[in-house]
Amino acid sequence: MKKFLLNIILFIIPIAITLYPFDVFISKSLAKSNKYPGNYTAWNDIYNGKASSDVLIFGSSRATHHIDPDILKDSLNLKVYNFGVNGHGFWLQYLKYIEYLKHNKPPQHIIIGADWFSLEKRPDLYQYNQFLPYMLWNRTIKDYTNSYIGFRYLDYYVPALRYFGNSTAKERTITYAFKDAKKIKPYKTRGYRALYDRKKQGNTENLSIRENYNVKIDGETVDLLNSFLTDCKEEGIQVSLVYTPEYFDEQRFIINRKDAIKIYTDLSIKYNIPFLDYSSGEISRDINYFNSTMHLNSSGAELFSMKLVHDLLQNK
Predict the structure, then answer these.
(1) How many CB atoms neighbour CB 61 within 10 A?
(2) What is the DSSP letter of 25?
(3) Helix segments in 165-218, DSSP class H
(4) What pTM, to 2 d.p., does this model score?
(5) Residue/partner pairs of 73-78 with CB below 8 Å, 24 or more apart
(6) 134: closest CA among 113, 110, 103, 107?
(7) pLDDT for 239-281, tens place per residue?
């Protein structure tokens, strides 16, 4: 058996050595991509040590599109970065935070997008391409992504293997291979991207038509959030839980929405941190501020960001 394993290792090593330069070339080219969904800029800033900020924003796509770091920066006079993770709950938001701390200074303040979606853990690794340039031999990424349907075990260890059969990665590698990264305009600015105004685009579709939904609250995610808040308290990092605006007519379809709200309310009391809930405010009741039931448009995000920074200053 030992001889068999040794033969396999001796067979794999030359292949890995041969494929490694190919892996580096693809990864560096892909990481320059500025096309939708624009995930690479934030990851590049993390690993290049350029993301260091006083205030960090975490959450799902609702954080990505609702909180403008430039508005917070101008009012707070602090550096701000938005690390929203599209389509995922706190599990992968926390992964981003761990990787951030390896290469950047600890923040003074963290804003958590506290909505029902962040308490879920979907089975599939949505937008998995964002991890491709950084995951080879990266144990942290492996530990936080291997429980999802997405990558195979050897994808984390064998150079270039994860790129075979990935047409999107190949296309973007060809597109960006010889472009100067400094001349490529990023899709997002410090992790933030405003969404278009539906009415200006001629979209008059009724936003409130959908079926009932039962939030699948993930116990391990709630435990991880508790652990994170404990660490922040011990390290003297201020945390604010923020439920960003959500179109009010959407809320009646979320069967156990109150259970999610209670989790954040209890965490707020337990750790003595603010829980700012904007889901019943004026913005949440005005369809003109929304791109979809869960996402604000550019004017809604601007108005909300100004409201949020005002309330953060009040809670200092």
Answers:
(1) 21
(2) H
(3) 167-176
(4) 0.91
(5) 75/306, 75/309, 75/310, 75/313, 76/309, 76/312, 76/313, 78/53, 78/54, 78/108, 78/109
(6) 103
(7) 999 999 999 988 888 899 999 999 999 999 999 999 999 999 9
Residue among 130, 137, 139 nearest 166 (CA)? 130
pLDDT at 73 over 80: yes
Which are the contacts of 3, defined by CB distance < 8 A and separation ≥ 6?
A: none
Q: Where are the domains of the chain?
A: 2-35+53-314
Residues ≥6 apart with Cβ < 8 Å to 192: 64, 65, 67, 68, 69, 70, 82, 84
Contact yes or no for 284/246 (Cβ under 8 A): yes
Give the homologous superfamily in CATH for domain 2-35+53-314.
Answer: SGNH hydrolase (3.40.50.1110)
Extract the tokens encoding 66. 């609702």
Tell me how far CA of residue 309 lies from CA of 74, 83, 133, 237, 301, in angstroms: 10, 17, 34, 18, 12
Give the residue carrying structure tokens 């929203």: 84
